[in-house]
Amino acid sequence: MPKLKVLKSVAHNLAHSYLSLMNYIDGEYTAERLFQIAKDSGENQIHIDVLNKIIRPEIYNTPEIQKSLIYMEKSFDSLINPEKITRDYIKSVEIRIAFHLDQTRPSKTVEGLELPSYDCVSEITDINGKVHSKSVVEWWRY
Q: Does pLDDT of 52 surpass 90?
């Protein structure tokens, strides 16, 4: 049986990379696209079911975001495989993001990019029902 305690680190790394500037799809940053949808719609709470590639609320279900969910699922597999963990050991993988629409700052490296503030929790539930949870802070705060 693989050591499932590493799933806490996997949860952190998965959400951190998803919201980072390394996640650039079809000419835009995924985190910036999510933030723009949140600003335009006022729906600042997002729930992502990684394994089923579902994002809620429905307003976030755009072709670009769907593509990012496919990449995120592949990223998840690449994080668990070196640990000898298969999906048989996983019940669910969820990421919840709450954008603070009134708290942004300009990027120092990408002109015109607003860096959003958010709360993010990434959770992986294993086959034993244990939840491996990690809060993920904005990458630009480091």
A: yes
